[in-house]
Amino acid sequence: MIQGGIDMDKINEMRLRFLSKSSNESFARVTIAAFASQMDPTLGEISDIKTAISEAVTNAIIHGYEDKTGYVEVYAAIYPNKFVVEVSDEGVGIDDIEKARQPLYTSKPELERSGMGFTVMETFMDELKVISAINQGTKVRMVKYIRSSINKIGRSE
Amino acid sequence: MIQGGIDMDKINEMRLRFLSKSSNESFARVTIAAFASQMDPTLGEISDIKTAISEAVTNAIIHGYEDKTGYVEVYAAIYPNKFVVEVSDEGVGIDDIEKARQPLYTSKPELERSGMGFTVMETFMDELKVISAINQGTKVRMVKYIRSSINKIGRSE
Amino acid sequence: MQIAGKKINDILVVSLEGELDHHTAGEVREYIDNLLEDPTIRNLIIDMKKLKFMDSSGLGVLLGRYKIISRRGGELGVVGINTQIDRIFVVSGLYKIIKAYDDLKQALNDTGGY
Amino acid sequence: MQIAGKKINDILVVSLEGELDHHTAGEVREYIDNLLEDPTIRNLIIDMKKLKFMDSSGLGVLLGRYKIISRRGGELGVVGINTQIDRIFVVSGLYKIIKAYDDLKQALNDTGGY
Ligand SMILES: Nc1ncnc2c1ncn2[C@@H]1O[C@H](COP(=O)(O)OP(=O)(O)O)[C@@H](O)[C@H]1O
Ligand SMILES: Nc1ncnc2c1ncn2[C@@H]1O[C@H](COP(=O)(O)OP(=O)(O)O)[C@@H](O)[C@H]1O
Description:
The complex is a heterotetramer, with 2 copies of chain A and 2 copies of chain C.
Chain A: E1 12-19, H1 24-36, H2 43-64, E2 71-78, E3 82-89, H3 97-101, H4 117-124, E4 127-133, E5 137-145, H5 152-156
Antiparallel strand pairs in A: 1-2, 2-3, 3-5, 4-5
Helix pairs in contact in A: 1-2, 2-4
Chain C: E1 2-8, E2 11-20, H1 22-35, E3 43-54, H2 56-71, E4 76-79, H3 83-92, E5 99-101, H4 104-110
Parallel strand pairs in C: 2-3, 3-4, 4-5
Antiparallel strand pairs in C: 1-2
Helix pairs in contact in C: 1-2
Bound molecules: adenosine-5'-diphosphate (2 copies).
């Protein structure tokens, strides 16, 4: 049991772990959207979050684990005015993060990847941080400020 | 990364951990329903699973953790012909499981509990197992056989 | 959860929209009990046409209101329950004490002898 | 994902229903490329009225088909994209090479000079 904790501002949190199967991409989108909907976000905000999650989870599945099967983990937390989401894998990792984040860069053009995943995450969310190490995996942390939530959360609890 | 494993029949699995807040009850229902929908179940099967999950998660929140906050964990796995789901808490535990499972028995009549939670789980799912120990928490394991899935899963992967 | 109530003669009609679980049970209970403070109300009809989901926490809410209403010699009826909620009613034996109707008109006609 | 295709003169019209992500990209790609083996097809119109979601995996599919079609001197058009997909188009600059139309009639009129 948890009593209080350091992060007193945190209203709710969840952690989801699933296999790196492509059928889980839509599952992850639905789950995170359902969780984020507690903040009473606008349709546009929810759809931005869904798209960004889809990019990060897809990357974990196809780049992180390539043809192998591993676990993808999604952590999400609701704060009074922001939604934080982290997508992690324990896959191959990224060598040059700066290069990877550039628009149109992809290491898998043969799979018809557009190289726009990180650009989409960056545009659709307010903050994007990528932590990665070769053979140790990748964690993508994204933050979206939800304007509408501040007064609404209290009401629904 | 996982290569194979003992449970070769398992098609997909997920694990969800969230705070014992009542607003997460509907979130848990949506998440498990979205995951189970990969099996192409009937509307009736999905609705049975949703109801059973709702009972187990609600019990973890109100009985397991009472007024405290803790983590509820939901594990789900898809097999060729069955859906397995486990709901666990690290709460107060159940003293007499047999008594608790009886229809209409509730330890919290003052909260207008109906005492029908376990009965609903038992009726709506095909198997129900309750493992619990005082102050160590409770795990409810449920199985639902999904008739429609056998030939469909392969197609959508 | 959206809740609306209106009084027709000695019948209170409460419409529920959304999902009735432990999270929403409290507000439904409070809403109804507040209106039930009016002692001229004898019967209660709950319109569930727009209720998408109910679990055993909802049973608790119904049973609690049933007790209040039967103490007044009145009846509790429900309208428009879907398949999922029907399953809950069957399992719990709720049909033995609560009458179910297809539509509100029928429920009003039947309740309290109108 | 539901996919349907029909040929109108030298235009292939493909309708997508569902969500276009990495999981469904493969079947969409295969479906279209299969029909594009017909060498009399010069232009491609993708009807997205019933497409609820698309991410950058969908961009990859569109860019790949764009390459095939432009090699034939044809055009790629899309019809009925929603707000979410519009955002993806804007971010990626896709509007610079793919024409968007409100309805299929307009797209057919405009494509290939009909
Ligand atoms: N989780 C990850 N694990 C390993 N590499 C990654 C991961 N995510 C992204 N990358 C690398 O970053 C590159 C750019 O990613 P992105 O912008 O999403 O484009 P795309 O997925 O289309 O290649 C990828 O091609 C890949 O090399
Ligand atoms: N997760 C749990 N932790 C502790 N006690 C539990 C748990 N789940 C059920 N119980 C006990 O079992 C009893 C019966 O549960 P149930 O049939 O769901 O009815 P209700 O929730 O209406 O009380 C509860 O009243 C409680 O005492």
